[in-house]
Amino acid sequence: MGYELASRIYEPVNSFLEKPTGIRRARRGLIEKAGGRVIELGVGTGLNLPLYREDVEVLGG
């Protein structure tokens, strides 16, 4: 399965499961605390990227 197709399937399924499991709240809570430079390992489809403040420099891998 190619990346494009996988990301189209992954994101809706992941979003559906995030809210009832509390993952979405935990993700936002952790990312709020980030500052300076952050290395995000396993950035995948980039779901976390919009959650960082503008003053945080994010390097993804």
Explain how this protein is built:
This protein is α+β, with helices and mostly antiparallel strands and 61 residues long. Helices cover 48% and strands 13% of the residues. The protein has two helices and two strands, in the order H-H-E-E. It has helices at residues 3-21, 23-32; strands spanning 37-40, 57-60. It has a two-stranded parallel sheet. The protein is flat. The model has no long low-confidence stretch (mean pLDDT 87).
Summarize, please.
With 61 residues, this protein is α+β, with helices and mostly antiparallel strands. It contains two helices and two strands. It is flat, with a radius of gyration of 13 Å.
Show the helix and strand layout.
Layout lengths: L2 H19 L1 H10 L4 E4 L16 E4 L1
Parallel strand pairs: 1-2
Give the radius of gyration: 13 Å
Structural class: alpha+beta
Q: Distance between the terminal alpha carbons, to the nearest Å?
A: 21 Å
Helix content: 40-55%
Number of strands: 2
SSE series:
HHEE
Feature tags:
2 strands; alpha+beta; flat
